[in-house]
Amino acid sequence: MVTHSYHNNVTLITGASSGIGEALAYELAGQGACLALAARRVESLEAVAARCRELGGQAVAIRADISQQTDCERLVQETIEAYGRLDTLVNNAGITMWARFSDLNDPALIEQIMKVNFLGAMYCTYYALPYLQQHEGRIANISSMADKLITPGNTGYVASKHAMEGFFEALRAEVAEAGVSVTMLYLGFVDTGFAGRMLDKEGKVSSGIAAQLWQTKQMSPADSARLIARATYQRKRTVYTHVDGWPGWIFPWFKLLMPRYLEKIGKGFMDAGGI
Ligand SMILES: NC(=O)c1ccc[n+]([C@@H]2O[C@H](COP(=O)([O-])OP(=O)(O)OC[C@H]3O[C@@H](n4cnc5c(N)ncnc54)[C@H](OP(=O)(O)O)[C@@H]3O)[C@@H](O)[C@H]2O)c1
């Protein structure tokens, strides 16, 4: 059944220049959304915006580095200037790493990841919230099943997604009275090439550094976009996807009841990933 839940819905998506954010932009454009698309690579962003307009949506491309507080503020301002309101914020932009903590040249790499994945989402939410509260808006946060597994080699990434979880669970309870919903999406592997952009121990993008980890079954970006759109519209609290055929919701139970088993799986990944 075709639904057009996002018709005229003003939606701000961070990290819309590629991958899941790009696919979500196309999904929502097809439903007639008014999109504000943010990322650093402005040419890619302009191309995504043009495609969104072909698909029937409205779209503006806004260059923003969300690790910068001032960019997050300007991003929301420019969205309001373009459309006059904001209904949905999707905190999707993210970066990741693949290195043992003790091997890092500089532990500030962890700070860099926190600044994008957690603080960027927090700042965007801070500036968006007054507008979201005017219209019972929606916030969607793209987290990872890495947050629910035990994933050595990925310390900074997991820390950033844990921070996101704690922050947005507390915020959900604060904003419920204003009718604003917070949806947490814990995604398994999605076929976006994210593994090819992992930061190595020197903080450099190392293509394919852990590509073998991504050999497992992956969700397509389009499928993940449909899932995000539906769950956010329905104001779901929490959504898990599958990992290697296992339903994602089972892993928090595994962590509670069999942490050593999960740790063993994580160490296996680390060995396979050559770090
Ligand atoms: N792929 C997976 O298997 C998977 C699984 C679970 C969760 N996720 C999550 O899904 C989200 C999207 O990842 P993806 O797989 O679609 O990878 P991706 O294609 O690399 O997308 C990441 C997006 O974030 C943007 N970004 C990175 N740093 C930024 C910054 N400082 N300011 C603004 N935008 C920034 C990138 O754009 P620019 O480079 O143009 O700035 C890009 O549009 C991430 O939060 C990731 O943690 C991915």
What does this protein look like?
- The protein is an alpha/beta fold.
- The protein has a single domain (10-272), classed as NAD(P)-binding Rossmann-like Domain (Rossmann fold), CATH 3.40.50.
- Helix content is 44%, strand content 14%.
- It has a seven-stranded parallel β-sheet with strand order 3-2-1-4-5-6-7, sandwiched between helices.
- It is globular, with a radius of gyration of 18 Å.
- The model has no long low-confidence stretch (mean pLDDT 94).
- The structure holds NADP nicotinamide-adenine-dinucleotide phosphate.
- NADP nicotinamide-adenine-dinucleotide phosphate (NAP) binds next to helix 1 and strand 5.
List keywords for this structure.
275 residues, alpha/beta, Rossmann fold, 7-stranded parallel β-sheet, 8 helices, globular, binds NADP nicotinamide-adenine-dinucleotide phosphate
Poorly predicted runs are none
| Major sheet details | 7 strands, parallel
**Helix-strand topology string:** EHEHEHEHEHEHEHH
Average pLDDT level: 94
Helix content estimate: 40-55%
* Class inferred from helices and paired strands: alpha/beta
CATH superfamily: NAD(P)-binding Rossmann-like Domain
Q: Specify the CATH class.
A: Alpha Beta
Percent in strands: 5-15%
Give the CATH architecture.
3-Layer(aba) Sandwich
How many strands? 7
What do we call the CATH topology? Rossmann fold
Q: Spell out which ligands are present.
A: NADP nicotinamide-adenine-dinucleotide phosphate
